[in-house]
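Example 3.2
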Amino acid sequence: MFHLMFSTPCLYVIVRFIWPLPWPLPVRVGAALVLLLASQYHLYAKFSSGSVFSPEFPRGVVILFNWAFGAILLIAVLQLVVDLGALLTLMVRRRWLEIPVTLRYGIGTAALLLAAVGVHQAIRVPPVKDIDVAIKDLPPQFDGYTVLQLTDMHISRLFNQPWAQAVVDRSNALGVDLIVVTGDLIDGPLSARRQDVEPLRNLHAPDGVYVIPGNHEYFFDHETWMRYFASLGMIRLNNSHALIERNGARLVLAGVTDLSAPRAGLPGPDLKQALAGAPDHTPIILLDHQPRNARLAASQGVALQLSGHTHGGMIRPLDLIIARANEGFVSGFYDVDGLQLYVNNGTALWPGFALRLGVPSELTRITLRRAAEPG
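Structure, written as tokens:
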């Protein structure tokens, strides 16, 4: 079903874009076969590793597949827009609008170029994005406190050891007080990713590096990965919390497991357990990979929730669809019943669909500020 879903745009492109072109029949048949082969990228990924989420090909091949796959999807979308326009013309003028071959060439060229730009935007080392968060009753000692959020790194053959090292170097150079990693660090089993994740051992901040799982950790032996992250020096928050202290003042940093955990037979997110024993009247920062439970977090007094998972929607206006699957949350800040929710666009994204257009990746440096007292 998964592969059929991704084959449908390709079939549409063959029928409505390739076949009407004034090319010799052997050329059209050859082009159709190339597109069909490119559209089965996820099937090849499954053959290479046993999972569509971990293509085990050389990085250049993964990049090429993402470009070709992205171009097919973009041609399908652009051709659909043209076909709808032609259909509308037929309904209004009672005349079928012949699509000029030059327009088809324009569609193809635009799609190829946009796909190349989209892949480049997806695989780059992200720029730093600075945001300020005003928190009610934040102790003065934490005014100006800096937190770096990394999320959805999806370390893989695409986001490999050199990429991970560059992210770590850029992150360490920021000199933040605390680093949090909000899930989906990897794609692949430990046996395949050990070298690629090794740079994370050098990630550091004065108050530590904290980690929670995302849904992809549950695809690849969650417990093995979480133990390994701990061996790299990260502090695991497993429906639990830690106290961050500064000059006698404290913050609660809580973290929960992912919503997908019960499907793997493991405990799902339990915020009450995570906050059990936390001191009263202390601002709470929550790490939750998926943003969907933000209203529940608001009811438990959480001041700030940091999430990822959505990749920001990857392509505008695809973000509107992804928002619908995540309780309306997809990218940036939301006020949820007094809770501030930040949904990060992601440090990287799934190597099975590595395309970004209008939704940049980010290294997110968050500066905490004391909220102004109501006047």
